Structure formats: C-alpha cells, structure tokens
# Entry
Amino acid sequence: MKTFCTRKDFGAIVLFLMVFALIFVLRHMDILQFQPKVKSTIIMPRVSPHHIVNRSFCTFQPLSPEDALEERLILDSIAWPETPLLPSSISLEQTTDPAHSTFTILQGRKGGQWHVGDQLEVMIQTFDFQGRPKKSGGDFITARLHNRKLEAGVAGQVVDHLNGSYSAVFSLLWEGDAQVEVTLVHPSEAVTVLDRLNREQPDRTYFKSLYRSGSLSETTICNVCLRPTQQLQCNYTDLRTGEPWFCYKPKNLSCDTRINHFRLAFKQSLTSKEEKLFQSGVNLKVSIQASGPSNVTVLPEEEGQLMVKSISVTSLPSGYYYQGVWRALGGTTVSQFNSSAITQCLKGKAVHMYGDSTVRQWFEFLNAVLPGLKEFDLHNRKQVGPFMSLDYENNILVTYRCHGPPIHWITIPTRELRYIANELDDLNAGPNTVVVLSIWAHISTYPMEIYIRRLQSSRTAVVRLLETNPGTMVIIRTANSRALTFQVSLTNSDWYSLQCDKVLKAMFKGLNVYLIDAWEMTLAHHLPHNIHPPRPIIRNMMNCLLSYICPLKHG
# Structure
C-alpha cells in the first residue's frame, strides 16, 4: 500500500522534528556543554541496556555489536533466580532461616564408602523461620570440605534446584577425615535486595572532587552515574577507553580546575523489613547444621582409579589445600618459593601490578620477604601510590598503581586517576615483563554492565599488549570472599564478588593469560574471610604467581 504526504503534512512533520531536536539538546546540555579544556572531543553518551532501571542518569558510550552481544550473553549466564515475592512485601518469618535448614550427606554409589578420587554429594534443604520448607531457590549458599588437622580444604560446587533444595558437590582429594561445612551467606530475599540496589541506586556510594583556582575552591559530588538536577555536569569520560565519570560543575569554577578525588559517604536506603535480611548471627553468613553426620572418612585411592573420575571438567575445583599448601588441579604445578627462590625467579624481570588494594597486598608481600628489594620513597600516600621497588643487584623492578575511578580510598590527586587500559597501552613490555591485574572490589555497587565494560576495555588493552609485546606474561587475580556486616553487605557483599568472579572468568576465557582463583583460595581455607586475606593465603597466592612466572621444569 502506498502512502502520500501533502505539503501541509510535511510541514507539520518538520516542525515536530525541530521541536523534538530542541528538547533533546536542552535535556543533554548539562552533559555536553561543559567539557574540560583538555578534552577537545565530545563523547556522546547513550542510555544503558534495559537491565539498568534508572536510564535517565546512567549513560554510556555505544558498544560494538560484538561487545553488546557478549554483554547480553554474560548477563544471561550469571542471572540469579528471582524471588517469588518482593522482600518488602514479606516478613522475616517467611525467609530462609539457617537455624531451621539442614544438610544431609548422601550415601553415593558405594553405599557409604568413599575413596580419594570420588565425589561427595550433600543435599541441603532450606526452611523458613517458622520451620516450613522453602519452595523456591535463589539463596546464596557456599560449601567447603576440610580437615583442620591436615590443614586441608576444598570449595564445593553448589547447585540450586529452584525448589528450596540445593546440592553441594565436593572432590575428594585427600585421605582421612573430611568435614562438610555449609553456609547461608544470604537468603534469596536479601539477594533480590542487593540486585535491586545496584540497578536502582548505583550512586549510593558517592564521591567528591575538590576544585581550586587561586583563592577559590569548591567541592562537588562525582560518580559514574549522576542524577539530573539543576546543577550542570562536568563530563570526564576517558577519551581512550570510554570509561564514564561525571561531577556536578562548581558554581564559580570551570571543569578543568578539578584537583583530586575521594570517597565521601554511603547512603543507605532500605525499608525496615529489608534491613532484617542482613543480620549477623541470624541470616548473614551463618552455618547450616547437618541432620546427621557432617563428616566422612576418605579411603585411599582404588587401584586403577582416575583422580576425580566422576566429576566433569567444568565442575572441577581450581585447586585445594593440603598441609596448608595450595595444590592446583589441571594446570601449572605450584612450587614453594622462599626468599632466595623468589629472587632467582624474578631476576632480570619487571613486575607491574595494577588494580585495587588486594593486589597491592602482593606488592607489599614482595617488599617484606625480599631483602634486596628496596622501595623508593616517591612521597605518595600509603594507600594510593604509585609505588616502585628495585633490587639493583638482581635487576628486579616491582611497581604498583591503583586503577581509575571509582576508587574508595583517601584523597587521590586527579593526575593519578589512570585507567588500567591506558597504562597497558603505554607500557614498554617484553619477555621479561609480568603484568598483574586486579579489578573488582571498587565496582561492586554498580550494575554489572559497568563492570563488564571496564573489563572489555581492559581486555582489549591486554590483547594489544600481547600482540605488540610478545612474551609478556599477564596474570589476573579474581575476587575473594570477605567478612560481612550489615553495611558491608550493601556495598561489598560476597554475592557481588561472586558475580564479578564469574564475569571476570568469562571475559578472559581463551586468552593467553593466567588466573589466580582468589575466590576458591579464600573459600577453601580455614582462616576467617577478609577483604585482605591473611598472610598464609597471600603466600599461597604468591606461590601460584611465581609458579606461572617460573614453572617447574620436568625431566
């Protein structure tokens, strides 16, 4: 069917389009008009995908079709089961109660006998505070198998059956006693709250910057996403990576007078019912007890039996502890390095570490154990850096630099707000260069799209680095578990860390990089969880790192 447009109709359409264009420009003036003088190119933002509820103030650069598809597939792969009822509409009594919930060790194929190389399956049944069985899934449950005397431990794989029951599957990797430990980290209703907070309140952790020119100074609020107000905005979106960052424009100063960055505060916005979902000792990281025996005796490996023969490759743990030492599975043999061995391994090498404070721990570890490594006093703040240490005699260089915003530390000069992707592009690397990355802890309060995009830009830089600097080694540290309180749960919950861990592994899968599985290494260990893992865990992580750099030579 043909349609025709009269001159009168055409004029009306043109008028409509002009009005629409004017409205669009006026609505975006606060973002587009005030660019720092050093940024001569205006990057047009766009609305983020539909997963972010507040589209009006979370804007991003367009993704390529390939990156957009990857983002969609990753979000689908980490999707969490939805809670049938919203937490605000139910009482605490209807939510998962770890005190009423139980786990049971299943007999297995050998009728109560287990050997090294078998798998152990545990059935977990959840109940609410009134003792009624839960009918839906979505609880965040972790599990580990351990033997305190042997200093042995391995993380279990938890499977949600979406009906209130869960399975935990363990690899049996040592001979002797093996104790099952199951923990409810969050009930499903709490996970729903955490997910909603990231979608609806991505600015609940907010930051400030100081602007100064002569005797004038002002501070304004900054973030990845800023809610629209009458106040104009300065757009500090990075021109090379496209990473977004905005500040409300000072009233009397220009955008290019910004001199620092610091975390200001955390805004809590929960109902009283929702707050009850995050109670230490009640439903926040609380153990679930066994309905019968909680341990098994593991017999020696049967003759001719393949190690962990009944477990699929995808469900194998990355490793386990035995006698306090981490043993990797299916990869590089982890050697033990004393100070002398570390020096020999790093001799003639440059190790560049980028990211958050969890990788800064590694920098501090090397400085503490290597007598020949001396840190230069660059007169930088203790947390922030950048830092540099040298061992002249053995030609060892170790550096650390924090990643770009958001970063939750004390005041950081704007000159030190550098994105990892840009640092990698500017790095003079080669066969004697090791790059270590850790990106997760400071981006947990935002929608997952923001984390995915940060990793996409970092990954692109890693690929460029490996192509242009053959022989460079890239090692990536994953997220780890931590101690949880009410407020910590709302900003750095283990659920956020687990989601970041899944995304990170998916993003770098298949690339010529090495992963150190901090998630399993902290979950499997007997020491309390901490955002900065205790020294024995750090030592094991460093042994993994050094084993990648200096693998054991066979034959």
Q: What stands out?
A: DSSP finds 13 helices and 27 strands in the chain. Residues 1-56, 308-314 have pLDDT under 50 and may be disordered. The longest helix spans residues 7-27.
